[in-house]
Write a structure and sequence with these properties.
The protein has twelve helices and ten strands. With 343 residues, the protein is α+β, with helices and mostly antiparallel strands. The protein has two domains: 79 residues, no CATH class; 237 residues, Alpha-Beta Plaits (2-Layer Sandwich). Strands 6-5-2-4-3-7 form a six-stranded mixed beta sheet, sandwiched between helices. Strands 1-8-10-9 form a four-stranded mixed beta sheet. A hairpin with a 2-residue loop joins strand 3 and strand 4. It is elongated and about 70 Å long. The chain starts with a strand and ends in a 16-residue tail after the last strand.
Length: 343
């Protein structure tokens, strides 16, 4: 038996299914981090503090490789949040620290990595008196300078950074719940129109169509994102509001925690060998995505749509609790029922 899931007794590591560190693990980590972000923002607002949500973008082209853009963005952020210039900004606005998340999409102009950052500060900002614009401009000028240094590309400070005041759910601005979804649950987002696709959508399209370009893009995403932390909380923020239970856990420790509901699914060796050698290589990652979204019935529906042979979901092997997907000897099977959340 070969098992899919994030972790657990007897399970195969998620990375074995072509994911880095694994879509199930990534979703679990992001869900835990989302709860932590929610706790930190609300705790800071509750004592009279203020938060501002910044999005940092950069100029990108279809010929850019993701690795170079990610490295440039990372180094630019590190440079702009160090040195006397940043210390002056911290002192001016009473900045405690930040939560930072990396999001990546891909469109007509290639890979588009960007940063979502919540800044925790003491100074009240307003759109009416121009203080929010001044705050955005201070960060925008530093961002433009260091992106130009890293990539040799000019971006105007007015367009490279966007700023939104974060308010609690009693306010009239951007709600905390929307902020933490935008910040850390990119695995749940589905881009539309001219906004490009998420890596998960690229992988899904590659598995469905076998498109060579999408397959190459998916492999590039897996390679570049491997072991790169997508979400980080500055120590000062975490230490100021330490109550949340996941605050001190590493991503690996979060991945090892069990969740409610179905966490494992087995394949017999024949089905598993098919997944390993299937012509659409991202299929293994899509199995994990289907399992995360729809449970075992979702995986069953996915495999029935792409495999040449019929499969069915059988009972667990003796001494195990996970259901098993096996091939059937006939092309006839009963009606499928697949709904979101089925497990």
């Amino acid at each position: 038996m070969r098992t899919v899931g994030c972790t657990g007794p007897g399970s195969r590591p998620a990375a074995q299914y072509g994911r880095a560190p694994g879509l199930l693990c990534a979703a679990k980590i992001r869900a835990a981090r989302a709860a932590e972000v929610d706790h930190l923002i609300k705790a800071h607002l509750a004592i009279g503090g203020h938060c501002t949500f910044l999005t940092f973008t950069l100029r990108h082209y279809a010929t850019d490789d993701l690795f170079a853009l990610w490295v440039a963005m990372t180094k630019a952020w590190e440079s702009m949040t160090s040195g006397q210039g940043y210390q002056d900004i911290k002192a001016q606005y009473g900045i405690l620290g930040f939560i930072k998340a990396v999001e990546v999409t891909i469109g007509f102009n290639g890979w588009h990595p960007h940063l979502h950052v919540v800044i925790f500060h003491d100074t009240l900002l307003s759109e009416d008196d121009g203080s929010l614009e001044e705050f955005r401009a201070r960060f925008g000028q530093r961002w433009a300078r260091y992106i130009a240094h890293q990539l040799g590309r000019e971006i105007h400070y007015r367009y490279g950074v966007d700023a939104v005041i974060v308010r609690d759910d009693k306010g009239i601005g951007t709600y905390v719940s929307k902020i933490h979804l935008e910040l850390v649950r990119s695995d749940l987002k589905q881009t539309r129109g001219g906004k490009g696709r998420t890596p998960w959508q690229v992988g899904s399209d590659a598995a469905e169509t076998g498109d060579a370009r999408d397959t190459a893009r998916w492999k590039e995403w897996i390679t570049v994102s491997r072991r790169r932390r997508a979400i980080s909380v500055s120590p000062a923020v975490r230490n100021a509001y330490p109550a949340h239970e996941t605050a001190e856990l590493s991503d690996d420790e979060l991945a090892q925690q069990e969740q409610d509901g179905e966490i494992e699914l087995d394949f017999d060796n024949e089905v598993y060998d098919t997944l390993l050698h299937h012509r659409h290589q991202p299929l293994r990652a899509l199995v994990a995505l289907a399992f995360e979204d729809h449970g075992s019935q979702g995986v069953l529906a996915l495999l029935r749509s792409v495999l040449d042979r019929a499969v069915y979901l059988g009972g667990p092997e003796p001494g195990n609790t996970a259901p098993v997907i096996r091939y059937v000897s006939t092309q006839a099977w009963g009606p499928m029922t697949t709904s979101r959340g089925t497990s």
